[in-house]
Design a protein that fits this description.
rod-shaped, 5-stranded mixed beta barrel, 5-stranded antiparallel sheet, alpha+beta
Length: 369
């Protein structure tokens, strides 16, 4: 390599011709080409290949660093291709070597970084130090900015009552978070199904596509409440036709309380068997004869569709046990309403007691006389 107009020669090592490895030097430089070069160091005068060590790559890198510095100061982003996956992050070619720490790759944890190799990413410049060849970049900042923009757009257009599509992003014990394309909405566990759901993971999976109804939107808190069951047929619709009074149904005991048992007779439709309707015999609590999860037959006593109430009975389906007439004595409440069937018009227990009192008073008067 000869300095133009001087006759002084210098050497450009192959690695100093370009930032990327090359198979054929003729792809970069040919005899007679004029190149812009930077002097790296001097070489002893006795060296027959020239007096200076030169670099084309380093001069180009200086220009790249200067351009990146301008973009950084202007708050602009840059685009670079991932060339290597290393411990702790990704290496990119931005004209110079750039590094994306693993924590700055995405807005969520990424287990396999190899998926990014060869991808072209938009990046935010986090730190630049040309003298140390340090360029720290972030793709996460771009992802978060895009989602924030999309989030604002969705919050400005979505409203209660809308039906939207989304993807299940996360499952918790209290519900499912659905990605609506930049913002997550919550389907509370009580809004998944008309049937009782113990855990959202029992019926939903991460990545599942869903149609949901918007229940409420709170732009200030970035919250959207969603419902799956609101798009399902109302289970109580037509219940008076499916379960009129007198109908015998099979159901599952869902809950036991001190006053009775709630039995699901259709998906999402529960009726109450009051404790007095469980057995002909006296029981202190329903769990003496029933268990949650048990399948039983019940008879519909009363239907109130507007109140979502079903009155059910178990004992109405079992024969009443025979009782001994001698032990079947009337209670005080029953005797107070007792009346004979005498053809003379009948009399009450009060009449009998009254007559006896009159006789007693009359005898006392006679004794006084």
């Amino acid at each position: 390599m000869v300095f133009q107009g001087t006759g002084v020669e210098g050497v450009v090592p192959l690695k100093e011709l370009a930032s990327q490895p090359v198979d054929d030097i003729k792809d970069i430089a040919k005899v007679g080409d004029v190149l812009d070069l930077v002097v790296i160091s001097t070489i002893g005068k006795d060296k027959e290949n020239g007096s200076y060590l030169l670099s084309k790559r380093r001069l180009e890198a200086r220009k790249v660093w200067a351009d990146i510095q301008k973009e950084f100061e202007a708050g602009n982003t840059l685009t670079a291709t991932v060339t290597e996956v290393v411990k702790g992050g990704l290496v990119v070619d931005a004209g110079v070597r750039g590094f994306i720490p693993a924590s700055m790759i995405s807005d969520h944890f990424v287990d396999d970084l190899s998926q990014y190799k060869g991808q072209e990413l938009e990046l935010k410049i986090i730190e630049i130090e040309p003298s140390e060849n340090r360029l720290i970049l972030s793709h996460r900042a771009i992802v978060e900015a895009q989602k924030a923009e999309q989030r604002e757009k969705i919050l400005a257009t979505i409203k209660a009552g809308d039906t939207v599509e989304g993807t299940v992003a996360r499952l918790t014990n209290f519900g499912a978070f659905v990605d609506l394309g930049g913002i997550d909405g919550l389907v509370h566990v009580s809004e998944i199904s008309y049937e009782r759901v113990a855990k959202p993971s029992d019926v939903l999976k991460v990545g599942q596509q869903l149609k949901v109804k918007v229940l409420a939107v709170d732009p200030e808190k970035n919250r959207i409440s969603l419902s799956l069951k609101a798009l399902l047929p109302e289970p109580w619709d037509g219940i008076e036709d499916k379960a009129p009074a007198g109908t015998v149904l099979e159901g599952t005991v869902k809950r036991l309380t001190t006053f009775g048992a709630f039995v699901e007779v259709f998906p999402g439709v529960e009726g109450l068997v009051h404790i007095s309707q469980i057995s002909h015999e006296h029981i202190a609590t329903p769990n003496e004869v029933l268990s949650e999860g048990e399948t039983i037959k019940v008879k519909v006593l009363e239907v109130k569709p507007e109140a979502h109430r079903l009155a059910l009975s178990i004992k109405a389906l079992t024969p009443k046990p025979n009782t001994d007439d001698k032990t079947n004595t009337a209670s005080p409440a029953e005797t107070s309403n007792y009346q004979s069937n005498d053809d003379e018009g009948g009399f009450t227990l009060g009449d009998l007691i009254g007559n006896e009192l009159k006789k007693s008073t009359s005898n006392n008067d006679d004794d006084k006389n």
